[in-house]
Model the fold of this input.
Amino acid sequence: MNNAAIGSLVLVGDFNWRKGPFWPAMLALAFGRRRRFVHLGMHCTIAFWKDQPYLIGFREVAHRTVGCVRPVAASPTSPPPPKPSR
Done:
């Protein structure tokens, strides 16, 4: 699937979850087949019930580096760190 098709699926799934009937959405959550993917930096979980998509999960991708700690550079507008007193 290309990005436009995935984006359309996310929009329709979100609309069905928010505006659709309550019970089909709950049945999709409990028993629907799932499709998980990352789209535009978001983890999306779509559940299908009777060929209708429902967006049941939408979270931001965690940007962390495994096994490596990088120091955060100070921004040019931030004040310098205080000097230790003796």
Notes: The radius of gyration is 21 Å. The beta strands are 33-39, 42-49, 52-60. The mean pLDDT is 81.
